[in-house]
Amino acid sequence: MKHLSLLALLPSGAAVSTATGPHAVPGAPDLAAYVLSHERYDAAENAPSARKDYKNVHVADVMTDEYVFPLGETGKSIVLSGYQIAAGFLAERAADAWLELARQQHVENGGADSDGTRHVPDPAEADQLMDRAMESAERILAPFETAPIASLFETHYRGAREFLRLSWEGLPEDLVPKSRRPAVVLKTATDPAPAAAAAAAQDYDPYGLEGTSDYDVDKPLAYREKIGPFLLTMTYRHEYPQVDDERLGTAFAVFHEAGTDIVAAAVELKLVKVPPIHSSADLVYVLDTYSGEMLSLALAATEALGPERLCSVFNTHRVVYISTWEVRKQWRGQGLGVALLREALQRLPADPDGRPDALCVAPEPYQTEARYLGQLPPALRAEIDVPAQRLTRHLTEWLDRADLPNVKTHFFIPMAKHEGIGSAGENARLIDRIMESEA
């Protein structure tokens, strides 16, 4: 039988991992979040004691703190340092991976899972596992020891393969005809007469059934124009054009520097219109047929609005949900994100049934790695929520004074609580509660 090295399954280097799933290589945020999910212990008080704040707390501080570590289902516990808990996490992960590989190898060699064979790693390697796991944890965390702990859970651009770049690569020149701009762009106060009237008739055709000389009906409607120092490129597509009553559209807009083609900001909007609903259960049922993201939107909107206002908003508005919205770091704080959002909202195709828009914003996913939120202590969660709260205030003030004729209302949703977990797990339990309460 081929030798399977247990120690070789320990991660070897430092990383800020963005991968998910049981086989993803853990990074510093994974280890820190796992450590922080345990109850902090204060040796001076000889009792558990959570930190009151994390404002000046660095990664090294968290990893040298002590925590209460439960011993399975025995009801007993021991006190370990953060580094020891992180090492135990890596050791357990390596042992599970080794056992799975050993079972696979056993089956490939003609054995069976049910034949009672015990798979045991090399005793010498097993003796070294915890020591080597500690070294591995220290290597992974070393580059971040002096960084504020909250910085590990912020959204990062990594490897130049972020949302902005990937989305821009999806917009080749042949998707951007010179014409087919919406009428709102062409209307001007200085020339309100025949040209503007003619342009009004050339507004968006949401299904791509007219103006086929201008663009291919199999491609998304798209156009480009220069705005200040940036080029704005915008595309729009109906996701389910064959469905009359339930419509989901996607609009994508990007700013890039006109001279260099460097991406500066991007926003992706989901345009959601549903048939008449009478309860949050109706909304969950309708949007769950689209995608996991739309199901998460239904659950988060239910939590934010409550059943009564939820029905009112979705029955009378087309909901414009900011699915992704990012500004590259060198342009942050200069108002570029709001400027792009304004340009995109002004250029959305009008709803054929005349519904006004309700802008739906989820601030958290743009600031935080949502998959870690449930593991973090409340005090750290509160500090990580500060940028989202600042964004909420900023957008509320901006929307109150912004001249966006079709945006009649707006609301904020806790999308991070529901994002990415589909119709299983906690979402499934929430769906059950919604269905039961409205049966």
From TrEMBL:
Xref: InterPro entries: Acyl_CoA_acyltransferase
Keyword annotations of the record: Signal
Signal peptide range: 1-19
CDD domains per UniProt: NAT_SF
Protein name: N-acetyltransferase domain-containing protein
